[in-house]
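Subgroup meeting minutes
Present: P.N., E.W., G.H.
Scribe: E.W.

1. P.N. recapped why we're keeping a running log of single-chain structure predictions: easier to compare across weeks, and new members can see raw inputs and outputs side by side.
2. G.H. added today's entry (408 aa).
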Amino acid sequence: MRRVVVTGLGAVTPIGCGADGLWQGVLAERSAVRRIRSFNPCEFNCHIAAEIDDFRPEERLDPKRIKRLDRYSKLALVAGMMAIDDAGLGTVDPNRAGVTVGSALGGIACAEEEMGHYLAGGLRAVNPMLALSVFGGAASCNLAIELGWFGFNTANSDSCASSPVALGNALNAIRRGDADVILAGGAEAPLYPLTFGAFSLIRAMSQRNHDPEQACRPFDAARDGFVMAEGAAFLVLEERERALRRRARIYCELAGFGLTNDGSHMTAPRTDGEQAARAMSLALHDAATDPSEIDYINAHGSSTPLNDSTETTAIKKVFEGDAYRIPVSGTKSMHGHSLGATGAIEAAICCLAFANGWIPPTVNLHEPQAGLDLDFVPRHGRSCQPRAILSNSFGFGGINAAVVFRKD
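Output recorded in log:
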């Protein structure tokens, strides 16, 4: 079987941009959550989010391109091009190179913005690029156009599991021989009033408006919901022999992928954690990795009352006695939950953990909920030289995805 390695990383996140900026944001061990500035959130029960302050697309894209793209595609293009630069790919056969993107909402926020223009000025006031912006595949296609790549290209909208599904699709495509290089990741731009308000309506988000930095607190007894964010991250995935021939810097190997569905409820996870556990087991089996080899778990850790406890149950099912040995952390406590893009941000953090010999903390974990008794790495990270890392992502509709990275 052809093996797949990670040779490039790119990110645009609330805690930092680029591989170095993202890692510096992780090392700062601080939450980027604050009161929303991009619109007035007063009519909602949640007033907080993790926004990106230093996103400057003009540093990467020409003015004409910027004018034609919505924020979703801009985030994707900038993060994707950062990953390409980081990989130092050189000459690539465009027929053997592809793009795959995960996003829960795609360009829906662009449609929301243009609806206001339509109501105020009719169809003539609407951006003529709207039809080319709203669909999820806009990001993957714009990246392919930017790169001049003609190969494997796909996008998915599998809720908060979208990014790892994109990684899994890329992994299998390279294994099959459909491509040699794939840019894979996710992007999300959900911080617009109606889009944000939809999640407020279902009372899924934290209402700790008085203390934003402490609001996202995975596994903590006082958690009360997730905190929305925007962001994008991409990994350059490359067939291992090709990467070795060009003497590429290799972060790690993407070794396994698992995907299941709870088949139970649109918003609530199965309380027995059975299918979440099976997704992890499938990823471990696909990676030919024994549970005893996992030295760090990057948890979905959404900071919601049901999800965190279910994930803990699932980890115990899979790892049994080893579950209490393995460090587990929820990095959403720093960068927030950018829905379909979060899994890619967390995957990039996992790759950087290999490179830097350090695993990140759950910064706002002060008192774990009773019964959630794993090693959650509270508040401060720690030195570690992991052999293998498991990263989980669970989404609405009961979609469970897990990926395994191994030290190459």
